[in-house]
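CO-FOLDING WORKSHEET

Operator: S.A.
Ligand of interest: zinc ion
Run index: 298
Mode: holo prediction, single chain
Checklist:
[x] sequence pasted
[x] SMILES validated
[ ] output reviewed
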Amino acid sequence: MQRFHRPIEASGDAQRDVARIVEDAQQLLAAAGVGRDRIGAIGVSAPGPVDVRNGEVVEPPNLPGWGRVPLAAWIEAGLGGPVALENDANAAALAEWRFGAGRGYRDIVYLTMSTGVGGGLILAGRLYRGHHGNAGELGHITLEAGGERCACGLRGCFEAYAGGAAWAKRLREVTPVGSTVAELAGGPGRVTPEHLVAAAHAGDAFALGEFARWRETVARGIATIAFAFAPERIVLGTIAVAAGEELCFAPLRARVRELIWPDIAAGLEIVPAALGDRLADLAGICAALETVAADRVG
Ligand SMILES: [Zn+2]
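OUTPUT RECEIVED:
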């Protein structure tokens, strides 16, 4: 397998940004000696919201200026096809289910826990997309009526407390000057959740307190999710993986057990995502596999 990684510098001009992605893919194909006629399917994992039926990305908050973009059609024009477009959290859920922490299970919920809180639902052994393909936007369930403003425009969302970007914003306001966290970051104004997690691992009291606050929010979000779907596994990504068993998972499981009914808790495991930096590649591949499988069935 060949891979190529380039952080996107969104220009605000979707046509220009997609053209660069297509050029990267063309170079990969050329290097691998694969012609357009040999492409079985192209999987695209894109920031949501997406309209999977029309192959469109619909005004993604993390790609300002993109508007409503016919991403599948543009990529197909550049590379061939067919192109399968999937919301990135759904594609990641598919990847963890097929290749990672959800392998062998029928009912899993995947939460990204990175910049935002993305969610993907595998229910009864298949990806559950909902009406337009955006089911599982669990970062936007309301935890606090009238609470913190979320990037999505609503207030009090799970993501407004547990998302990395929202947490970084808070940390820059509350981190004491001269604290371990501030020193690790090079000043309170530069603190990220990574610095906080590193200081918590080192036993710093401020970092442990802030992490416990984050974990409590995550426990409350997970409790709602557990009642809604009663999954076998809830798989948590980035920040939770970095924090690990002692800091995150063991106390989180104990707290969630206090917040939900014993019957639901008894069937539930809360575990770290397993794919690490292979996730993005496998997410795209899984989006393509879904389409190939769907074409075969239908
Ligand atoms: Zn929101």
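REVIEW:
Residues 140, 150, 152, 154, 157, 159 surround zinc ion (CB under 6 Å).
Residues 51 and 224 are 26 Å apart (CA to CA).
[x] output reviewed
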